[in-house]
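Rather than argue in generalities, we reproduce a single protein record, letters for residues, whole numbers for local backbone shapes, just as it appears below:
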Amino acid sequence: MGLNGSDVAKSASDIVLTDDNFVSIVNAVEEGRRMFDNIQKFVLHLLTSNVGEVILLICGLGFQDPSGFSVFPLSPLHILWITMLTSSFPAFGLGKEKAARDIMERPPHDNKKGIFTWELITDMLVYGTIMGRYSESCTIVFRARAAVFAELTWMILISAWEFKSMRRSLFKLDPHSTKPTQFIYDIWSNQFLFWSVVVGGLSVFPAVYIPGLNTSVFKHTGITWEWATAIISVIVFVSGMETWKLVKRATAWFKEEETEGMKARRGVRGLSLRQGFFTLARSFTKSRSEARSENDENSGNVFHTVPEPVVLRPLKEEV
């Protein structure tokens, strides 16, 4: 204890609670898991967009003009625009994500695995393949480039919302909520990410239609019926991501095994001494994600602030 503990106990201990509050340990674990999850989402979003672009450009090698030169579906400025502007701001927004509702119900992460888990690598390849495969459309070069540019931009932006959870559906991020408007709240909760996706999606239209900017800079031209192709491709892409998440949930791929603490919360006996401290602390306190979820359910106001956690003070031993 940082306040009531002796100097000898502080120097011999591994953890010192400066506020003598047991719930600080729970909140510290929750914040560490939130940071780790957000780093994974950040990396997954950037790498998925890069894999999609690489696959798309490799597929473009098969298209040649009458003189025998390859016709690439994206110009060099398209690649720079998507990499530096379209992907960057949504990735930053993923770094500001709040902790998931069930973040404290998951087992501890193995420190030996690091960020690049097999689930992240597999997701990167699957989503990148879907993104690159469904970005092929028209036949006329300049019109095809405009359609592919719109498709790829929207896919990368919407994938940022999908990466809010690596396993749960975008339309059911909170498994404990029964509100019909929960999807809207989940999207709006991270406003930096929300406006990054919206502004990035709208920036496609001036890039396609402004005279001179489209033909001379981006090397594409305005399109008409090709917008339908772009929208359909985005719908297929989102359906593919949701299907892959459904497969992972149904088959329990990459799912970590339950810990003894998780079994105890479900009523299963066999709690070990190591889990006893956290179980005792959580019986009197709530983590920030749990407090936010309970507060939203009781008040019905999704923008209500989270109350301060209950402070536990250690009992002094009488002499």
Remarks:
- Residues 209 and 222 are 5 Å apart (CA to CA).
- Confidence is low (pLDDT under 50) at residues 268-278, 301-319.
